């Protein structure tokens, strides 16, 4: 059984500051990847996710610890051995646009694979291999072959790169933020593709900062913070019963999309003579004061989370708050919540950011 394993891997980078100190990017990271599973590697920016991907692809050398593939240290590979390793372990990265030379047709990425790994394969056999790889990623050859990069969508470019990996005898796919630059509908297509590849026996490391995407696609989840694993286990257990405080904090930042949302800003809430409390989407409770709310002052909002840096589209109406307060009657009353100005950025219709007054 093919396995890719990290054992106590640490990585230090020398600081560019005057003192030239060492900055830890990874701290004794250990886990293994097995066929037919997707592992989500989740953490905020700078947590070391991409460094792990680079170490697995031998684009970065560990300071300590080992990475083994089928029991052999990948640091020992050279020449034909290293070439064979890359035949079985491939990476697809965040920005598909930078993977193509704009002066060449996009399917040139297939030609590079052919010249390196299949120089003796005939044209008919090679064409059949390309068609099979494109079919595996749900691409029509007529839609992508012979086209320049600018003629393809981001989703087509990304799936073309995955098809390139499938031309090889790939066993492990390192998918580093591969859908973060794609639109919502294309993201779902690529996620479903990963699930299909898993069902065919691939081991996939899905590197992301978006917990909702990780929950959708993965069998196991690893939570990374400051280069160290703080929680690891079956996805349903990590999400359903998190043990580490950092994991709990990340999960509270994810909107509970399965819950029905009221059209009102925070719905109708019970109010007593002593005031009111409102429970938000993430379970937090905040005291509120009812204010005059004009019905015409409505807008939809999205929030960029400070921890995960994931844009969360919130299906809520924001209502303008007028000065002054008023008494709230007992029973059910509607209240509105105001955002502090530093947390609110208004975008004009032409997508220009409005400067705060």
From TrEMBL:
Superkingdom assignment: Bacteria
Gene3D superfamilies given in the database record: P-loop containing nucleotide triphosphate hydrolases (3.40.50.300)
Pfam families: ABC_tran (PF00005), oligo_HPY (PF08352)
SMART domains cross-referenced by the UniProt entry: AAA (SM00382)
Keywords of this entry: ATP-binding, Nucleotide-binding, Transport
Alphabetical GO biological process terms: peptide transport
Claim: ATP-binding is one of the keywords in the record: yes
GO MF terms, alphabetically ordered: ATP binding; ATP hydrolysis activity
PANTHER family named among the record's database cross-references: ABC-TYPE DIPEPTIDE/OLIGOPEPTIDE TRANSPORT SYSTEM, ATPASE COMPONENT, ABC-TYPE DIPEPTIDE_OLIGOPEPTIDE TRANSPORT SYSTEM, ATPASE COMPONENT
Name the record gives this protein: ABC transporter ATP-binding protein
